[in-house]
Structure formats: structure tokens, C-alpha cells
Amino acid sequence: MAENLLSVKGLNAWYGESHVLHGVDLEVRKGELVTVVGRNGAGKTTTMKSIMGMVRPRQGSVKFEGKETIALPSYRIARLGIALCPEERGIFASLDVAENLALPPKVREGGLTNAQVFELFPNLKERLRSQGTKLSGGEQQMLAIGRILRTGARLLLLDEPTEGLAPVIVQQIGNSIRRLKAEGFTIILVEQNLRFARTVADRHYVMEGGRIVDQIDNAALELSMDKVNHYLGV
Q1: Whole-number percent of the chain with pLDDT over 90
Q2: What does the H/E/C string look like for the chain?
């Protein structure tokens, strides 16, 4: 069994005086793809941001490659090799595709070249000089993912990458995510679309009320659908 790349134990986080994460526990092994699913407001995005040190204060333990990161600032966590692709994508609207791709600093060796990003997302090569405002939602998502792949990060936190996208684009994003996993990337995927999630994931963590309330292997998901649908309010 592969060793844990990320280990989160008893993670608590606050927005001001609001206690939003209540002892979150999760582990991700090297080369694994896990999803975090749950209703809106369950704490999924906050968990990803807390792993990156973007939510303060936070308490508990977040270890990456065995190194405790709970007291580190976000920029130092990123330099360890973790990258977040946020739900809002964060594309710079006034910059074109090439300029957006050039923005992230290299944090480790092994980042994808532009040519490798374009092989993964051919649409971006065709839109190389198009401003962010001119890109479709799917193209913006491809650019957001491509941008973090340039950094050399090996743990990718993808927050709702298929939200609001047409089925054909969701399929393309899915193919790209599976390819990244095959090439050795470790991925945590926050995803509302369980039908999509089950096509890419090894395991699923279910969140409710700022806690992890269940963990389900993908192979057992079919037999657990009644329980999962109850969690998701379907």
C-alpha cells in the first residue's frame, strides 16, 4: 500500500468567530484520487483552503510528506508542492492565455511545459492570445488547471472543476484528470457531480456539518448509494 502523501487529523477552522470545521480527518496516498462530496455549506471548500493555510485560525494537524504544515503560511505550503485550483478559477481577465500560464512561480522541478499543457488541453493552444474575458467557462477551467500544473506541485486540490460546464466539456475535463492521475499526480477533488466523481475517484469522503462523516471506496459506491443520497439530500 502506498504511503500517505497527505494526512489531516483533527482539523478545526474558523471564519472570525464562526467555527466551520470540526475535527476533519482524511488521508490521501501517493498517486490516489479522492473526492470530497457533500451538500452546499458542508465545509468542502473550507477544507481545501484550510489545507493550503488560507483559513485562519486553524488547529489540528496537516502533514504533507510527513512534514507538519499547520503553522506554516500559505506561500510556504505551496512551495512544498501543493496547489489549489479554486472554484472561482481565478483567471486574470485582462491577460491572455499565454500570460496567465506564465504567472505561477515554479515551486518544484517537474512542472508541465506549455507544450504539455496544450497536449492536455488543446483548446488553450488555439486560444493562446485570447484574453481571459473571451474564454468560455470550460476554457477558463482548463486554463486554471493548466496554470497550477506549471508549478511542479504534485498534490492538486481541484474545487468543483465541472460546475456549470456542458457535458462534453465535463467529459474532456474528466479525461484530463484521469491522465494526470495516470502520470502520478495525487488529487483531491471537491465535486457535487457524483456521477462524474465515480468515473475518476479511488475513494470518496463525505462531509456534513464541517465533519467527515463517511468514507466509501469507489468499488463499493453502488451499494452505498442510498446512504450517499441521504447525505447529499438527493
Answers
A1: 85
A2: CCCEEEEEEEEEEEECCEEEEEEEEEEEECCCEEEEECCCCCCHHHHHHHHCCCCCCEEEEEEECCEECCCCCHHHHHHHCEEEECCCCCCCCCCEHHHHHHCCCCCCCCCCCHHHHHHHCHHHHHCCCCEHHHCCHHHHHHHHHHHHHCCCCCEEEEECCCCCCCHHHHHHHHHHHHHHHHCCCEEEEECCCHHHHCCCCCEEEEEECCEEEEEEEHHHCHHHHHHHHHHHCC
